């Protein structure tokens, strides 16, 4: 008797007639249940019956391969690194340098710039935020400049202001005595005389 030809099909999928009995089988991607008749999906991912390089996604009767962030599907089931630097020329911003890494990239920035919180752009460092200038600070692209009040000059070694000695200019007070003061100077004459700034003389 060929049980496989019975109107009440004994197998869910494939029936193989054998002498005195029959045997059920399942198509690819399925396994036979304990009842010997019905089939259930084979999870190729958990049973490691796949050839995925990164990620395995089980589907009914089969599986699909996926790639991690920073990779794309290549020939077969391979995952190929994406060169973000070549595909997005705007990465790291003007002056920054983009370096491709496996699955990602990194930016290096010129002096006076730093990588922002996204890791994708170089942004100006606000050097004035650390209080490096005593009198006042002007942040510039990639740099800074200290501002000084009248009578002072900037010392570039420390970004501070120091008094200008106006008296080094021998003609500033004419014949009177020049006395340097913080941020200014004074022209002094002998007792009983006053300094005339127009004629630079004592009268």
Give the tally of structural domains: 5
Protein structure class: mainly beta
CATH superfamily of the largest domain: Laminin
Distance between the termini: 143 Å
Poorly predicted residue ranges:
none
Q: Mean pLDDT across all residues, rounded?
A: 91
Inertia-based shape: rod-shaped
Q: How many strands appear in the DSSP assignment?
A: 20
Strand numbers in spatial order across the main sheet: 1-2
Any guess at the CATH architecture of the largest domain?
Answer: Ribbon
| β-strand amount | 35-45%
Helix fraction bin: under 10%
Order of helices and strands: EEEEEEEEHEEEEEEEEEEEE
Give the oligomer, counting copies of the same chain as homo and different chains as hetero: single chain
CATH topology of the largest domain: Laminin
SSE blueprint:
Blueprint: E1 14-18, E2 21-25, E3 30-32, E4 39-41, E5 55-59, E6 62-66, E7 71-73, E8 79-81, H1 84-87, E9 97-101, E10 104-108, E11 113-115, E12 122-124, E13 137-140, E14 143-146, E15 152-155, E16 160-163, E17 177-181, E18 184-188, E19 195-196, E20 201-202
Antiparallel strand pairs: 1-2, 3-4, 5-6, 7-8, 9-10, 11-12, 13-14, 15-16, 17-18, 19-20
Characteristic key phrases:
203 residues; mainly beta; Laminin; 5 domains; two-stranded antiparallel ribbon; rod-shaped
